[in-house]
Amino acid sequence: xxxxxxxxxxxxxxxxxYYVLDAPIVSDAExxxxxxxxxxxxxxxxxxxxxxxxxxVGDTVLSNFKKVTHKMxxxxxxxxxxxxxxxxxxxxxxxxxxxxxxxxxxxxDGLTIVCTYDKGFLKSCATRGNGVVGEDVTxxxxxIKSVPLSIPFKxxxxxxxxxxxxxxxxxxxxxxxxDEALKNAxxxxxxxxxxxxxxQTAKRNLDWFCYNVLYAEGKTFATQVEMFEFLKQNGFLISxxxxxxxxxDILLEIESVDKQKTTLDILIDGMxxxxxxxxxxxxxxxxxxxxKWAMAYKFEAQELSTILKDVIWQVGRTxxxxxxxxxxxxxxxGATIYRATLxxxxxxxRKHISIGSRVFVRRSNEVIPEIMGLAExxxxxxxxxxxxxxxxxxxxxxxxxxxxxxxxxxSCPEQIIDKITxxxxxxxxxxxxxxxxxxxxxxxxxxxxxxxxxxxLKEEDLLKLPLFKEKKARNLLNAIEKSKDxxxxxxxxxxxxxxxxxxxxxxLSKYYRTLDELKVAKKDDLAKIRDIGxxxxxxxxxxxxxxxxxxxxxxxxxxxxxxxxxxxxxNSEGIFKGKTFVLTGTLExxxxxEATALIEQNGGQTSSSVSKNTDYVLVGxxxxxxxxxxxxxxxxxxxxxxxxxxxxx
Length: 649
Ligand code: AMP
Ligand code: ZN
Prior knowledge:
The chain is α+β, with helices and mostly antiparallel strands.
């Protein structure tokens, strides 16, 4: 009950900002999420609070617009979030009426506008309001060029459609009036229609997409399709629609629209399925809020808005200082998110965000959530300051390109802690059970000052630390001992050399085979290695030119690290012996890392660019320029099937 009350209040507050003030304080996805939660609670408890937003279709009517009572009540749409739910709704309908067919339309994310025509002329226009009473916006809507001012049909006609701004018009507007730039198409429409000055409406070049005849004097329609045809004949801009019999086809079409929706020039937030035959609709009827003969499917939301609470600056193992956004926790695609990346200071400026403002957060396929931009500037929001000094050690930062670095690599605590964490990580020394918190604890207690100190840790030192009991201490010491036998490539990666990731570390280990050879490699020679450029070559050479780094390496070797030198061709017996592969496109049966491992296990190697030296190009879906180049050079192309056949997997 308490939760329901809170939800209702929150939603009403959000809706007030959205509908009345035209200034949303949450994203639509967030609103929908809370709304659905409330609906669920109401269903589960059977209790509906009198002020619940589920009890009204639209919202409060602004007092400074003339109110109009709709001749025909305007309904909302029932919604489902999953394709399964939509499918079973369609199946249920078919079970009741086997001859049913459906129309599939876009669910426009704009503002509902109802226009009444009489004797062939546009008489009045209104917003939806609460579905019973709306606002008179006749002069505003008359400015919309796609709303016909006169029509062939001479009886009274009431048409419903959605006021929209095309994304290209939005762009044009923003170019023409940069000071009034509109960020969001949906708000651009409602702000234009609910504007007391119709000139402002005209300026925005709206459109009106029609999808319903609410009333046509002396005329009846047999189907939705017929209705659309009638509208088209009378000069209305109609909602693009398709006509289907099979629920399977509808799902397929929805999937294809979902994939392409970002290429559309209008904003849609889902699709609407309607029973096509009007006589069948009568049998399904209405609830108090929506027709039972239509169902909206909302595309899955991956973007929400939340408050930016703070920005902290983190120093990484190479000294790079990066801003991290601390946000009011939100649930996004199934995970609670507390932090998001902001890349660098330029990125912050570009996104116009400030501490205390509301920002959009997105989590795409990549795991790291990102701040997309400003949703709303709130009162008291503070600008984000660019730090001049290292947040960890206080050293003045140096700027290299768009990035800031702490130059104090020897004694900057955060840098060293991150270096230790990296050193212990899976692709490096692979010290099992070692976490960020372990390095922090070891460093801050003073027993580990650099990565070499890990190899002289004693049980009694560990036992002095909080939370370290005998078992945990012994496990850690065993894991450290085990890490002493290490592949050359892992060891190179573990050193935290600037610009050297796992791939470069592997390339280096293959090329030089021993650490001693790598240590004395000249920059020019390094740059000759395939896939290693000037910048990377420079980082590597300067790392080994620094006597402090050499001392550290010697110390590690003294403490018993044994580097397994890499044999030049990996598995010399493999079927890909001596062959160089380039991977391109998206593979289906394995990740790129898995495919690379398979190639290497079988004696081959991989490279990132196609050249005369490439033996095979392994292509996945949507392969691009590399495939073209490979064809040009006449290099043998393998698809996944053939690749698997060769490997007998
Ligand atoms: P909602 O505002 O999310 O409750 O969704 C219901 C509203 O979606 C309706 O009142 C219409 O304004 C709007 N809508 C957008 N596209 C369509 C469409 N193709 N058919 C019917 N309603 C639509
Ligand atoms: Zn520092």
